[in-house]
Design brief:
Order of helices and strands: EEEEHEEEHHEEEEH
Helix content: 10-25%
Distance between the termini: 27 Å
Strand order of the largest sheet: 1-2-3-4-6-5
Oligomer: single chain
Largest sheet: 6 strands, antiparallel
Number of strands: 11
Strand content: 25-35%
Length: 181
Amino acid sequence: MIDINHKVIINSIEYKIVKLIGHGKGGYSYLGKRDNDDKFYVIKAIHHEPCDYYQFSNKIESELSDYQTLKNTGINIPKMIDYDKNQEIIVKEYVDGKTIDQLIIEDKMKDCYIEQIKKMCAILYPLNLNIDYFPTNFVVCNEILYYIDFECNPYSEKWNFENWGIKYWSKTEDFKSHFKI
C-alpha cells in the first residue's frame, strides 16, 4: 500500500497520493494529482496478496497486455497515461463519476446502463473476450458507462454478463450479501 500524501515518481513525473479509491484482486487504486495541473489520475499499485478464486501470472504484464486488447475493442475505458514495470504501478486517466454499485445502493441505477453493458458484450463476445463484470469496475460519467479495470479473459459462458455479472447489477441477494446492505 501507498500512504496518503506520499508521492510516487513514475518516469520522472511526480504524483501526490490524495486518497485510496479502490482495492481489487490485482491492486490498490489511488486518486493522484500532479502539482503542475488540475487533473486527477488513478495510480494503480499492483499487490501480491493471495486470491483464492483467481490465478494470476505476471500482474503488471497482464495489465499492460489486457489494456492493449481492450483498447483495440473500442469499448469505453480510461486511457493509460504511464506505467513503471519495476515499481508495478500504472497511471490511468481518472473517470469522474459513480460506480455501478454506488448507483445501485443510492437507487439511481438506470436501464440505459444495462443497455450500455450489453452493447459492450456485443463487441466483446465475438472477440472471445469477457471482462470483470463486477459493478465496482464500472463508472458512469455524463451518462456514459466506462469499464475502469483493464482485466479481460477468454470468453466463458459461466463468467459472461448474463450468467454471472447481472447478479450484481441490481439489489439481488448476491449484491446485498456482498455489499452488506
